[in-house]
Every structure is written in structure tokens, then in C-alpha cells.
Amino acid sequence: MKVLVIGPGGREHAIVRALLADPFVSEVHAAPGNAGIAQDVPVSAINANDPVAVTELANRLGSDLVVIGPEAPLAAGVADALIEAGIPVFGPTKAAAQLEASKAFAKQVMAAASVPTAMAKVASTAAEAEEALDAFGAPYVVKDDGLAAGKGVVVTSDRTTALEHAQACFDAGGSVVIEEYLDGPEVSLFVLSDGSTVVPLAPAQDFKRIFDNDEGPNTGGMGAYSPLEWVPAGLVDEVIERVAQPTIDEMARRGTPFTGVLYCGLALTSRGLRVIEFNARFGDPETQAVLARLKTPLGGVLLAAAKGELGNVDNLHWSPESAVAVVLASADYPDTPRTGDPIRGLEDASALEGVHVLHAGTALAGDGSVVSAGGRVLAVVGLGKDLAEARGKAYDGVGRLELEGGQYRTDIAAKAASGDVVVSQASTTTGGA
Known about the structure:
The chain is an alpha+beta fold. The protein contains 15 helices and 23 strands. The strands form seven sheets. Strands 11-14-17-22-19 form a five-stranded antiparallel beta sheet. Strands 2-1-3-4 form a four-stranded parallel beta sheet, sandwiched between helices. The longest helix is centred in the middle third of the chain and has 19 residues, at 235-253.
């Protein structure tokens, strides 16, 4: 099987590595890729958001499956063009990808499917925003309704800051979704869908804030780990029963079946399970940690989803090891990331046992050296018998890397490794409202 992976980041590098480990996959290509992906597979420098360019490339390569990584190509209708050309694609159509592209649309779907989520109001003016903020009270949660690469959400106790974020979205021609604040630890669960059948992957937890102790502005994600030993028994079954399957069924009922991966961002609150958000693709950097533990060959599972045959897939098999992914970001991220800085120590870090380095924002300089080319530059994944060992390996790898002005969190998976993640009693009862 020949597979084409669309996207430039760390998530795509993780997918490429997993596909290369699949004995049924004979060939992997990527577009546009990055410096690390280019070391593993052939890459093509096309515009990944151009449906025509992607379809032409897939045809030229004789691709049996196209896997779309980021949200932008999905929102641009790349999957639609591939489907029209008769090429199996793992990724939803433009209409189905509205589950991520519009938070207001996602709220409508959840309401119709009786999916538990935060109460919310849509605001298009400052007056509407003020009314919604006053209705829910602090802490204030203000989300850009459209795509924002994981950075369109502000959670603050400062009403002025909340209003300023809403106004910035209005000034850009958008609207906002203002929600009640959800307490409790967060969980990320990827659920594969072929439009009717759903198959869950292993839960993970990511870290959005730029600094330790969840301080500073939101980012696309500074690290993640899996598995989650602290989650209540039966959580995955509950998410399938109350969240994923009803959502997939509702999308099918609307005539926009969802094929691909439904990312369920969840909060285990004092009042039970709640959906924070949906994404229409693999999350980054959770994918780096989750796929590091997957033993079932990935290519066949994704092809089954693309062809509507997930019902024929056996239960997925997972390594008992823990995986911790730590992101190395560039100077001044997430504001105005500095690029073009040389990265040293890649070979030393990659040579460590139980460590692999996945490229995200990297490129090749004229002399062939690897330089930073984005905000999140690398993810170092450590595998170990438990979280403590996996953390040690990941941070050993990070310590071998040199990037001027580079920044990373030192507390990824620390609370979980020390048993300090607290789940409220309400979240430990399956079916709690």
C-alpha cells in the first residue's frame, strides 16, 4: 500500500513513522513535510491547502490512501477533491470538518445529539460578549469561533482581557463562543470513524500553556503523555457511548458523514464528563505520544476507516510502556516565533535508547544544516516502563539539543508521575450528568 501524508508538522512526522513501521505499507510520501520528514520519506513541496495540487500529487504517486494531518486542508476541501477523484482519504469532508472549523456549529451538533458540554453563548458584538461574560461569570472562557491553531482560546479572570480577545476576533471579521468554565483535569481522546463505526485510541493529556504550572498564554501544545493511569475505569466506554457515537450518528443524520479522527477534548468536572471542544484531525502533540505506543499496524486501520470498513478491524493493541512527548519551541513563541536558528544535537538525542525526535517547525538551510522554521520546532518522545522513566528519557533527549532562545516546559507529566492528578468523585461515575 502506498500512502501520502499531507502536512508539515510533528503530528505528520509521527504518522509517517508509524506508517513506516507497518509491514503492509510499501511506500510513504509526504507533502510538504519538513526537514525531519524529508530524512525518512520523499517529500513534495506543494501547497497542502490546494485541493487540485494534492489530488494531482496523489494520482501521480499512485497513492492507495491519503492521510490529511492539519485542519487547514480539511477546511479547504482537500478531502472532497480526493473523494471525487476516487482516492481513499483519511480525513473528513469540508462540511464534516465544520465540527472543528466552527465552534458554534459543534455546539449545535452536540445539542442535537445530547452530548454533555459546557453551556455557551455565541457573540458577534461587544454588547453580546459583555452580556455572555456576565451571565457565566469568572473565570471567563472566550473562544474564536473559527480555526486558530489551538491558540484562539482565552481563559482569564480579568473581564477586560476577555473582552479584548472577543473584540480582536470581531475586528478580524469573526465571532466568538463564550462558555462556562469547566473545572477538573482534561483528557484528549482520538476516536477513528468511518462515518458510522467508531474505534477509540488510547487517552492522552496535553499541556497548552507555554510555561510550567500552566502559566502564560495558550499555545498549540507544549507536551503530552499516555497512558493516563488516573482516569476513571470505563471512561473510554463512556466517551464512546455519550460523546463520540452520538456525534458521528448526528453527522450522518445531517447528510455529512464524518470519516477520519474525531478529537474529543474532555474535562472531568465536578459535575461529570463534559466536552471542551472537537477537532477534526489528530491533535498535536498528543499524536506523538499516542502513536509511539500503538502496536497495531496503522496503515490498515486508516484505510479501513477511509473505506467504511472499521467494523472489520480487531481491537487495537498497545504497548504497556508509557510515552512522554516534550516540545521544544523557538524563541518568542507563541507571539512572534523567531526562525532560522540552527539546531544542534539532533543525532545525539536520537541515538538515546527509548528516545525519538520528531520534527515540526524545521527546514534545511543552504548548507544542509537543520534550522528552526516555526513556533514549535521539535518533539522529543521518551518511552519507559512508567511515566517517571519515560519523562527521564524525554528530558535527557531535550538536554542534548541546542537551539538559541529555545524554550520547553519542565513539568510535562510530572503530576501524573507523582500521583498528584485529582479527579472529582462525580467524574468517577459512568453516566454522571
